[in-house]
Amino acid sequence: MLKILALTLTALLLGACGSVATRIARQVVSLAVVAETAPLEATEAPAVGDPARGKALFTEVRGGVTCSGCHLVDSDARLVGPGLLTVGERAKTRVEGMPAQAYLRESIVNPSAVVVAGYYNMMPGSFADLFTEQEINDLVAYLMSLDG
Ligand code: HEC
Q1: Are residues 41 and 63 in the same domain?
Q2: Spatial contact of 146 and 86, defined as CB atoms under 8 Å apart
Q3: Residues facing 65 on adjacent strands
Q4: Which of 34, 53, 99, 148 is the 20 to 30 A CA-CA neighbour of 17?
Q5: What's the pTM value of the predicted model, to 2 decimals?
Q6: Could you tell me if 62 and 130 lie in one domain?
Q7: Which one of 107, 115, 129 would you pick to mutate in the ligand 1 pocket, going by the greatest count of ligand atoms within 8 A of its CB?
Q8: 60 and 34 within one domain
Q9: If residue 15 lies in a helix (H) or strand (E), which one and from where to where?
Q10: Residue-wise pLDDT tens for the chain (148 aa)?
């Protein structure tokens, strides 16, 4: 008897509040969607960098080193690291499904994530602290622009 009463009450409540409940549910779902897509949009946004600024940063000493101390930009030949002339092209195929700019960014801020075959990771792991977000965007834009 109690059980039936409880069931009836639940049914009544659901009937009365059904639309409210649906609205709340929808709200929750849309909030969840926002929460899920917001950070993705932030990381997937194409890097808006200034290649001229990136070029200057490439030879600027940070943390005691320069990119140009280890990388040539007018050839693909090895210095300490691989030459970067056509890196924008090969960056597209380094990691399946990863866009070139994302790969280049990763190579700078998290160099041990993907180590180019035939090389050891000798890049300092601290570039993420030594450059601002904008500066990293600038470096990526510069690297993308090297081969014309
Ligand atoms: C101490 C030497 C050294 C310095 C300094 C250095 N790199 Fe590197 N870099 C390497 C080596 C070695 C590799 C190859 C191994 C690896 O992938 O980590 C590499 C790999 C890369 C790659 C991936 C290349 C490819 O063909 O996939 C990019 C892009 C890159 N470096 C950019 C930079 C930038 C930009 C800077 C400056 C902010 C920098 N590097 C500073 C040594 C260095």
Answers
A1: no
A2: yes
A3: 62
A4: 34
A5: 0.75
A6: yes
A7: 107
A8: no
A9: helix 2-44
A10: 455 545 444 444 444 445 555 454 455 444 444 444 444 445 555 558 999 999 999 999 999 999 999 999 999 999 999 999 999 999 999 999 999 999 999 999 999 999 999 999 888 888 999 999 999 999 999 999 999 7
Residues 6+ apart with CB under 8 A from 112: 121, 125
Residue of minimum CA distance from atom 10 in ligand 1:
81
Same domain, 82 and 126: yes
Give the whole-angstrom CA distance, residue 100 versus residue 88: 6
In the reported structure, the alpha carbon of residue 124 is separated from the centroid of ligand 1 by a whole-number distance in angstroms of 9
Number of domains forming the structure of the chain: 2
Distances from the Cα of 56 to the Cα of 14, 67, 141, angstroms: 65, 10, 12
Residue 33, number of CB atoms within 10 A of its CB: 10
